[in-house]
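User: Can you recover a sequence for this backbone? Please restate the input before giving your answer.

Assistant: Of course. Working from this structure:
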């Protein structure tokens, strides 16, 4: 009887836990967005009307982002955005962080030039130990000139986040390209190897 109960509990946990984790992260993100845009409006509503509207910040955030996209899509809008970016980049620290952040986001959204090109195997951190990595780019010219090797950029992610880890520059001939999709590689990293490719 105890074995059956344990089995039922484990089965239920297997079904419900991924749902709870997904909902939790979604809730945290939405709450963060709502806090940015909705806090001041809800203070105003509570003060003058006596009630607050949960989620109003999310709606306002979506509207603002869509309006910015609409403005940026036309000729004059592009000029305005470029002028604002030029002014924005004059500030210290921002000019170091903003271009990199923009490039990373562009690469994740873009279908033509995805951030992760291939899932690869490399011998890291030492010979005989193989690590899963994501091929992100060809090496920059100076590194290739200094080493005299055809180097490529590989991100060695850390479980459970596939977006954080170590960047290594490794000779192209030392990587082994795996015949799995980026999505399968991401699942492999997030699960710590529990979820195998093809499942």
């Amino acid at each position: 009887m105890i074995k059956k109960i344990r089995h039922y509990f484990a089965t239920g946990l297997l079904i419900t836990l991924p749902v709870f984790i997904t909902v939790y992260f979604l809730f945290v993100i939405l709450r963060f967005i709502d806090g940015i845009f909705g806090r001041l409006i809800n203070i105003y509503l509570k003060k003058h009307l006596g009630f607050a509207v949960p989620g109003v910040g999310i709606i306002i955030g979506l509207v603002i982002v869509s309006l910015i996209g609409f403005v940026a899509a036309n000729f004059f809008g592009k000029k305005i955005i470029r002028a604002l970016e030029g002014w924005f980049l004059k500030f210290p620290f921002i000019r170091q962080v903003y271009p990199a952040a923009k490039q990373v986001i562009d690469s994740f959204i873009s279908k033509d030039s995805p951030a992760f090109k291939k899932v690869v195997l490399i011998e890291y951190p030492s010979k005989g130990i193989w690590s899963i990595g994501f091929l992100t780019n060809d090496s920059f010219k100076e590194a290739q000139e200094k080493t005299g090797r055809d180097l490529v950029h590989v991100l060695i992610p850390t479980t459970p986040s596939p977006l954080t880890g170590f960047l290594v520059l490794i000779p192209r001939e030392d990587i082994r390209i795996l015949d799995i999709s980026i999505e399968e590689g991401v699942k492999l990293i997030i699960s710590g190897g529990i979820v195998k490719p093809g499942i």
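That completes the design. The chain has a mean pLDDT of 80.
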